[in-house]
């Protein structure tokens, strides 16, 4: 298995088989798959949830104009979230590696401590970076807190770095040389120009004042939405701010003091959304709890008949 | 299965490497203490761990607590019986609770009167039963630096638990922890041999795991790994670059200590060895390999690195070579990254990059690193002048301006550990003088108690100035470290100041230096220079005590020397050393005792003049003669810094002083005589206290007598 798209297909197939909703990338700019509302919001509250999706993730400061063979301003994450975390999630994860074609009897697989924290989301968790033959291939995190709220039940989030894994399995010397389509177009043919232009934009062109005005505007809008009890629109405005912050940062327009202040403002929005989300789901009577018991009943009936 | 043997293994998802050793030590100690408290102490305690296992083996455990009798005291006799002698309800109730008839109870006398009591024999609890309660409790109570919760409200613990083996003399000790039931089943390696199997004792446990290549003893894994690495390196004509912490880490991230030995393109050797070693260590937990030189080789400097690396894989072999290929691929990517940074950074010299410091904040309220660089240049130059190191003045100012430039480099952003070192390397490449680039290179020394100080005078001066500037700045904002809160690392900075001044023999006046540093901040500080000194001085002297204590000096030696003043640290140290050297001598100890006696007599006394003509008794005349004889010499010795000579010389007063106190009454009724004698003692007090306040010295009088007679 040596192409980018095969990896996506196999992971999707595997996690769909684990009962995950096969979701699509979020249609706004985000820095990581965790910011997709189907992770950030859904891990809050008692409702069970399983989801998997690819999320293009933008880190403008990591952009290298398409010149660096290992770094990208936008990379693709494959994300699986299971809530509550199954007891045997480590074994399930190891199965997923076999599903993408790894013969683990020939490899060295280790789990090294790597705790995750997202200050802009008021979120943290503990877990590992999963190392395959010395290469980090997955972030494995048990969420403990999100939006400043303690989580119960605990969700597990698995984030596969798709470019890294493909590159590593193909032992490719450059991200841009690896196959996107088996034996067909390369990653570079699909994405290199986009990397160049995005880098150029974020490092040199982006209008700082415009970005700053935008930030203020989306922040106001987020607050207005929240007052109107519209959680998702409020959260989307917060995502906009988060991305604008990243662009400003790449543009070198954020001083150390400002950084702390801006992060605090994004967190305040995210925390507000998290709180409101929990309230609104509770008002609805935690709908997915009901569907879980429905599923349990259905499963029980099945075994009765079996 | 051995009699009295407990095998306890907790299997969890990978516990972080840094937490394993402290956790198992804590568990073993707590279990041992609890058992000892119940007379159930084991004869042997053995521990082990892998990332997925905590292991505790106890041997020679008694089968049960010893049986014992206990006396339970009941009601006093006066309320136990009615007037007719029949038992009251109180007595009947007590007897019933003890399972006895009232007439079976005994009478005991206490200091409160006569009571009824019952003697009960208590059968000791079975060890197994006790362990079933104790083990889950103590396992739960392990104190983790970071923990998590999972499942149905399980935790907090380091990571989810999956299995517990608890077997005492072949039998399962039944308990439950976080939803996991203890038993006799364990399993092998998570990927390579996950099939469960049963173990009934430590020997069987070890045998079965060994068959799977799993080594539970960390020391054994360390030995195996270290040896494999040495052998692999030796084949290349090299040896692993020493790094005990890295080895500890490797030991804590595997169950099977397999050696992963790879190589990289020799082109990367163009990178400085510090960069190669840091990249391999920080990114890949791998050792770099240095060439072993023949003894005849007279090349100086570090030996060159070889294009190879050594690390661990959690398996014993690499059947298809895939593990090695993968590791080499990652290392190549990392080194390519490092080379990219190196060349990017080298596009401009340190001098050309200096302006970048304006954009780097040192502290919100204290300005940028450029501001700091300017202050350091002045401070370093001043320091050189005050030390009479005029030859270093220019180089120190230049080094000070370039000191922090490497903070703007890509390499330091990537490998923060290389700050200073990187600046030094870039300075060397820029063709700066050796005094200057080594000053930049060594600026963070000493980072620990074992480290040496910067190697040259320029380095010593700039490193000292840097720390004083930081200390004064942060103290100047009133941000004084308290308890364990020390976000700016000021204790380490202060310790650096002390070590550099002491080991570097820099007779620098710290008060003056700090005052100058405060002035250089202009109006940025919220505290006045006086206020800063007031809080900084005790903070620094706290470190002085610490450093001298670590160097093996006694508490009283340090205090005695400090009491006379400590701004000039090398002189202070010379006085501490002198005290240490002479304290075992009889005369010196007599002198200390006399000094204490003098202090007692003089306390609350006014100052009096001494008139030689008024001395009448032979003993006081003798004392004066001895004093007059050595006074000038003592002054000279002390001024020249020969404090041992000074102390030895003053110790010459001991016998005349003893004689004086035996023969002469200081507090004579005659005012004139008394005042003159007090004046004599005051003069002696001054000369005796020239190098140290001897009264701070602790003298065990009994010991003194035993050693030297009275």
Architecture overview:
The complex is a heterodimer of chains A (306) and B (710). With 306 residues, chain A is of the alpha+beta class. Chain A has helices at 4-16, 37-40, 89-99, 162-170, 187-205, 208-227, 231-250, 256-283, 287-305; strands spanning 21-22, 49-58, 74-83, 109-113, 116-118, 123-132, 135-146, 149-150, 156-161. In chain A, strands 1, 2, 3, 4, 5, 6, 7, 8 and 9 form a nine-stranded mixed beta sheet that branches. In chain A, helix 6 runs parallel beside helix 8. Chain A is globular and about 55 Å long. In chain B, strands 1, 2, 3, 9, 10, 11 and 12 form a seven-stranded mixed beta sheet that branches. In chain B, strands 15-17-18-16 form a four-stranded antiparallel beta sheet, with helices on both faces. In chain B, strands 4-6-5 form a three-stranded antiparallel beta sheet. In chain B, a hairpin with a 2-residue loop joins strand 9 and strand 10 (171-172). Chain B starts with 5 loop residues before the first strand and ends with a helix. The A-B interface holds A 68-70, 84-85, 87, 90-91, 94, 104-113, 115, 125-126, 128, 132-135, 142, 144, 152-154, 168, 171, 255-257 and B 13-14, 16-18, 51, 146-153, 159-160, 190-192, 194, 253-254, 258, 260, 284, 286, 311, 313-315, 318-320, 322-323, 325-327, 329-331, 333, 336-337, 340, 361, 364.
- Structural category of chain A is alpha+beta
Averaged pLDDT of chain A, please? 92
CATH second-level architecture of the largest domain in chain A: 2-Layer Sandwich
Main sheet attributes: strand count, strand direction, barrel closure of chain A: 9 strands, mixed
> What coarse outline of chain A follows from CA principal-axis ratios?
globular
Q: What's the total helix number of chain B?
A: 27
The CATH superfamily of the largest domain in chain A bears the name Bira Bifunctional Protein, Domain 2
| Average pLDDT over all residues of chain B | 92
Total number of beta strands of chain A: 9
Number of strands of chain B: 20
Figure out the total of helices of chain A.
9
Distance N terminus to C terminus of chain A? Answer: 38 Å
Uncertain residue ranges of chain A? 301-306
């Amino acid at each position: 298995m040596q192409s980018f798209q095969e990896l996506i297909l196999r992971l999707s197939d595997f996690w769909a088989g684990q009962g995950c909703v096969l979701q699509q990338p979020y249609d706004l700019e985000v820095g990581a798959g965790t910011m997709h509302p189907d992770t950030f919001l859904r891990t809050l509250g008692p409702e069970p949830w399983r989801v998997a999706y690819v999320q293009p993730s933008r880190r403008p400061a990591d952009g290298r104009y398409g010149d660096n063979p290992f770094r990208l301003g936008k990379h693709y994450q494959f994300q699986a979230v299971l809530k509550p975390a199954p007891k045997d999630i480590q074994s399930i994860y190891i199965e997923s590696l076999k599903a993408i074609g790894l013969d683990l009897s020939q490899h060295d697989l280790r789990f090294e401590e790597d705790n995750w924290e997202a200050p802009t989301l008021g979120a943290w968790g503990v877990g590992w970076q999963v190392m395959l033959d010395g290469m980090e291939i997955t972030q494995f995190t048990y969420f403990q807190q999100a939006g400043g709220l303690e989580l119960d039940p605990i969700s597990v989030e698995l984030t596969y770095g798709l470019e890294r894994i493909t590159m590593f399995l193909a032992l490719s010397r450059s991200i841009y040389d690896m196959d996107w389509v088996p034996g067909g177009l390369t990653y570079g043919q699909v994405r290199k120009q986009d990397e160049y232009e995005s880098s150029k934009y974020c490092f040199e062109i982006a209008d700082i004042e415009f970005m700053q005005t935008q930030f203020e505007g989306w922040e106001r809008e987020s607050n207005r939405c929240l007052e109107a009890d519209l959680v998702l629109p409020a959260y989307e405005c917060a995502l906009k701010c988060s991305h604008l912050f990243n662009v400003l940062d790449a543009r070198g327009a954020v001083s150390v003091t400002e950084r702390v202040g801006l992060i605090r403002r994004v967190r305040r929005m995210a925390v507000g959304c998290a709180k409101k989300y929990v309230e609104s789901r509770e008002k609805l009577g935690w709908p997915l709890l009901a569907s879980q018991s429905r599923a349990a009943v259905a499963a029980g009936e099945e075994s009765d008949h079996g | 299965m051995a009699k009295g043997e407990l095998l306890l293994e907790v299997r969890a998802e990978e516990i972080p490497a840094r937490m394993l050793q402290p956790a198992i030590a804590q568990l073993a100690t707590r279990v041992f203490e609890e058992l000892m408290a119940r007379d159930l102490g084991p004869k042997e305690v053995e521990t082990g761990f892998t990332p997925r296992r905590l292991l505790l083996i106890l041997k020679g455990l008694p089968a049960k607590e010893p049986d014992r009798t206990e006396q339970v005291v009941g009601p006093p006799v006066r309320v136990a019986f009615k007037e007719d002698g029949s038992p009251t309800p109180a007595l009947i109730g007590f007897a019933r609770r003890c399972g006895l008839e009232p007439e079976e109870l005994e009478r005991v006398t206490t200091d409160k009167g006569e009571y009824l009591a019952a003697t009960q024999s208590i059968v000791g609890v079975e060890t197994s039963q006790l362990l079933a309660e104790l083990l889950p409790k103590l396992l739960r109570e392990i104190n983790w630096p970071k923990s998590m919760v999972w499942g149905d409200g399980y935790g907090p613990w380091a990571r989810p638990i999956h299995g517990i083996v608890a077997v005492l003399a072949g039998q399962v000790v039944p308990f439950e922890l976080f939803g996991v039931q203890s038993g006799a089943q364990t399993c092998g390696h998570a990927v390579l041999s996950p099939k469960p199997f049963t173990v009934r004792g430590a020997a069987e446990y070890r045998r079965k795991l060994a068959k799977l290549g799993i080594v539970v003893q960390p020391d054994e894994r360390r030995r195996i790994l270290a040896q494999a690495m040495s052998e692999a390196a030796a084949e290349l004509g090299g040896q692993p670059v020493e790094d005990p912490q890295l080895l500890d880490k490797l030991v804590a991230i595997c169950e099977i200590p397999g050696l992963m030995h790879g190589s990289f393109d020799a082109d990367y050797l163009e990178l400085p060895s510090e960069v190669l070693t840091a990249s391999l260590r920080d990114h890949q937990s791998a050792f770099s390999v240095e060439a072993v030189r023949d003894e005849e080789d007279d090349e100086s400097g570090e030996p060159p690195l070889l294009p190879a690396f050594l690390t661990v894989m959690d398996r014993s072999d690499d059947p298809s070579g895939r593990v090695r290929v993968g590791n080499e691929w990652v290392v190549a990517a990392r080194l390519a990254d490092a080379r990219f940074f190196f060349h990017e950074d080298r596009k401009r010299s340190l001098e050309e990059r200096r302006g970048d410091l304006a954009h780097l904040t040192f502290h919100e309220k204290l300005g940028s690193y450029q501001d700091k660089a300017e202050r350091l240049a002045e401070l370093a130059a001043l320091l050189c002048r005050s030390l009479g190191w005029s030859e270093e003045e220019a180089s120190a100012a230049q080094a000070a301006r370039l000191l922090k430039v490497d903070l703007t480099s890509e390499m330091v952003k990537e490998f923060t550990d290389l700050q200073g070192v990187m600046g030094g390397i870039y300075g060397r490449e820029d063709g700066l003088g050796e005094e200057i680039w080594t000053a930049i290179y060594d600026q963070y020394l000493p980072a620990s108690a074992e480290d040496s100080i910067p190697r040259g005078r320029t380095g010593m001066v700039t490193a000292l100035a840097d720390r004083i500037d930081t200390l004064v700045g942060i103290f100047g904002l009133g941000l004084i470290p308290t308890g364990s809160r020390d976000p700016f690392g000021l204790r380490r900075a202060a310790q650096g100041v002390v070590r550099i001044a002491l080991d570097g023999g820099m007779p620098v006046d710290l008060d003056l230096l700090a005052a100058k540093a405060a002035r250089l901040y202009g109006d940025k500080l919220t505290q006045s220079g006086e206020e800063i000194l007031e809080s900084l001085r005790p903070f620094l002297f706290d470190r002085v005590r610490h450093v001298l204590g670590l160097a093996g000096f006694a508490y009283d030696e340090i205090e005695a020397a400090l009491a006379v003043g400590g701004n000039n640290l090398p002189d202070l140290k010379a006085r501490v050393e002198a005290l240490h050297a002479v304290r075992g001598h009889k005369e010196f100890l007599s002198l200390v005792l006399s000094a204490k006696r003098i202090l007692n007599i003089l306390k609350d006394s006014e100052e009096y003049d001494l008139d030689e003509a008024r001395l009448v008794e032979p003993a006081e005349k003798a004392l004066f003669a001895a004093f007059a004889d050595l006074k000038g010499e003592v002054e000279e010795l002390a001024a020249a810094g020969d404090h041992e000579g000074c102390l030895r010389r003053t110790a010459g007063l001991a016998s005349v002083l003893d004689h004086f106190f035996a023969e002469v009454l200081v507090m004579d009724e005659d005012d004139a005589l008394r005042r003159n004698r007090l004046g004599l003692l005051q003069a002696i007090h001054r000369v005796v206290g020239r190098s140290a306040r001897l009264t701070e010295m602790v003298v065990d009088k009994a010991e003194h007598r035993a050693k030297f007679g009275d």
